From TrEMBL:
Source organism of this protein record: marine sediment metagenome
Name of the molecule in the record: DNA-directed DNA polymerase
Family that this chain belongs to: Belongs to the DNA polymerase type-B family.
Coiled-coil region: none
Catalytic activity: DNA(n) + a 2'-deoxyribonucleoside 5'-triphosphate = DNA(n+1) + diphosphate
EC number: 2.7.7.7
Amino acid sequence: SNLFPVKYVSISHNYTVGGLRRITHIKAVVAKVLIETDEPVYAVKRERLLFPIGRFWTVLTTPELKYAFARGHIKAVTDCVVYEQEVIFKSYVDKFYALRQEFKASGNAEYEELCKKMLNSLYGKFGQKGDDWKKIGDCAGESDREEMVLDMRTHRLSKLRYLLGQVFRMTGHGECFDSFPAIAAHVTAYARLHLWSLMQAVGWGNYFYCDTDSLIVNEKGLECLKSHIHNTSLGGLKVAMTSSHVTIQGLKDYSIGEKKVIKGIRKTAVCVGEGIYEQEQWSSFRGLLRSGQPEDYVVKTITKHLNRDYKKGDVTDTGVVLPYVFDATDREYMKELGYILPNSMLLVQGGLIQELDDDTILKNISMGDIHPDYAQTYLDAVLTKPASQDIMAYELRQENKLANLPKELKKIGIHPDYTKLYDTLAYQIPPVADIITMAVREAFTPAIAEKFGQYQDFPDDLKKYA
């Protein structure tokens, strides 16, 4: 029964607080506002999504604006986009939720899961982003792959994709066709406010962790939520599990009793050390293109190192997380958080073009979310290595035995099992025409040539040197 934006009406850069309050009663709105609050309920997107308190600018949707107006939290407004609004998901949700309950009652777990995914994933399609690709030519015979190309004239980096005999250049990354981010933003806003209302019902100190659609609470908290618990009612809560022991490491990283939940770590992963896991990695289509060998599907074993630094609030000595406080004294800090850093790969490439020293490049890598202990390893991996042909040519010039070839090939990722192959290929075979010429010179003596009249009437000196 919630209302969602369906049609763009107008955009304004000079709304008043009073005007914004009035328009939220009749239209759907997305607005940039100045908030002053003691509740960590308003999302602020910096390098990551934060829920601070204090005084700060952020972008809110209709349900969040109504909540903020009811508590006097909005102090100013700048940009505002207005939409017509309607109930748009009711028939879809009713249909799939009823189907899900039917499949659950009949024990059809696969179809029940399918209905669950249809219900949970629809909203995200309205906010989906994707790469924009432009065809720039044909490339018959080229293998399917993706590669990065640096234009030495403009110093611009481009991504090319070779696919089915055609070559494409990535021109940007933005909204997908038929997207409507305001709808997705309203869905997540409604969900966050509902979760916040449940946390308020539980009371401070009775909840330990919240996720997208769940809470970890104590017995008192469970008692407070009894009226919300219903296993089959749409939007109702259910008790997933109980335990006398909970360990919370961070975001989507916790254990309840014997059950462990770690985002990005498979259930079949093997723990080889504190925060270190080994697991299989199955390549996506894009991953196969990046590998340069899409015809070979290889399941790799990778090692993951967990970074358990919590950066969405201040963790006290007792383990309680307090929200960040944004206020006038934090203005420079807020300004710094407002910038989005390039990823570590781009920081390395830019640093090399700018001829920065290695220490500065390593520092920039760490700023891009790579752990400082692994910055040098990351840099070594990113720097371009010579092609295998160049390494073989160089080693041949150093010595004929190629004793150092296996070591150098391994540095650029050649598996030791294939070193012998490169050892053999290092010695070039003459072209076929040269081989034929050499064979003819060996077998085609002057005596044989004379029978064919090859040297007839030739001067003796020419015969000699023929």
